[in-house]
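Dear colleagues,

As part of the handover before I leave the project, I'm documenting each prediction I ran so the next person doesn't have to rerun anything. This entry is a single chain, and its sequence is reproduced below.
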Amino acid sequence: MRRELGDGYELDDDPTRIDREAVHRYLTEESYWARGRPRAVQDALVDGAQRVVGLYKNGVQVGFSRTLSDGHVRSYLADVYALDDHRGRGLGTELVRFSVDEGPFAATK
């Protein structure tokens, strides 16, 4: 599922579109929670996720989230980020909303 956000930004949950090298680079070099995480572990986490979402600007990935779920009532959001140059626009909020509220295990209202 894709969602346009305007100004060249979009969200997409197509796992084949995720730039795994960029995600690994950010998480291991920029984040405090995954510093030094081996690439094989990061790839396994992406492969095992219920949903991964990329945030893109003109086709270039600038953010990411990974969701794990028991498939029934609980979901856990992990490895969420937006690159520094793209912060302050509400994109992180939209990334989280899209990842959880519009995910495959979102609660029915």
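The two ends are 20 Å apart (CA to CA). The beta strands are 2-6, 9-12, 51-57, 60-69, 75-82.

All the best with the project,
I.
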